[in-house]
Design goal:
- The protein contains 10 helices and 15 strands.
- It is α/β, with parallel strands linked by helices.
- The chain folds into 2 domains: about 180 residues, Rossmann fold, CATH 3.40.50; about 120 residues, no CATH class.
- The chain has a 7-stranded parallel sheet, sandwiched between helices.
- α3 links the parallel β5 and β6.
- α4 packs across α6 and α4 packs across α9.
- The longest helix has 15 residues.
- The radius of gyration is 20 Å and the shape is globular.
- It starts with a strand and ends with a helix.
- The model has no long low-confidence stretch (mean pLDDT about 95).
Length: about 325
Amino acid sequence: MRILVLGGTVFLSRAVAAEAVRRGHEVVCACRGTSGSVPDGARHVETDRTRPLPAELTGFDAVVDVGRHPSWVRAAVERLPDAHWVFVSTINVYADESTPGGTPAGLTLREPVREDVDLTTDPEAYGPMKVACEQLVTEGTASSMVIRPGLIVGPGDPTGRFSYWPARLGDAGPHPEVLAPGDPADTVQVIDVRDLADWIVDSCELRRTGVFDGVGPVRPLGELLAEVAAGCDADPAWTWVPQDALEAQQVQPWSGPRSVPLWLPRPAYDGMLAHDVTPSLAAGLRLRPLADTARDTLAWLRATPDPTVTGLSIDEEAEVLAAWRARS
């Protein structure tokens, strides 16, 4: 097959291109190339999607697009309407983030934003723009599959969110005290970037159609952290700090400075990382053990100069733990 990856240098799009090359497909990565190199075996066509697509981008059997700007997706669909498309969207298209067990068949979408918006000034436009991109693909191509990932993790992660946990556990020494956020029964889900990439390439080959969530199994946070610790050969002494105590210490959820990744305010976000993965498994998604993801992420962190890792510093964590002990 001839597969066009609109992207190909960073995280998921790069993993897709690498997997497609591994399977023997002819792979073209269309991107500026400023964020890194494309995988060995793929051909790079320098492309700035704010301008018309290069004339040579024609004749593909399948297209994989991770774009978030409607104008970019519109131009690509108009150029390649006869290819099979796999469009990578996001669970941020859903208006309801509080109801666990949601699926594409049952959750309401946000109102689409059909014009490009600068996300540095309006980050809330991300999900609505993705809704518009989905519509362009499903309405303008011969066949298509839409995948809505949740939190994508694993080696190469440029966000540093999940990476916080292997980084924290992998070099903490024997029996460290580690802050665990919220309640161990809070549900979360993540998906390894390599499993998602495998599924995307499968879907190109099979011309799979439909709309699916790209998520892993729902599991309690306590169980997930235990699996991460096992993958990092760590035996931490967890100290669970409840939500109100974290908020009192100005600890932020999800990512960024002074945050604890994988922690989300409850009940407002009870459904964000609790989608029903059953339809996706029935459509061919295969998932590896989370301990393997943690082990490989830690190995990548140790081999990578200055990888991005977000979250509390060691000193900030100690400060929050001391405040919790004094309070309790």
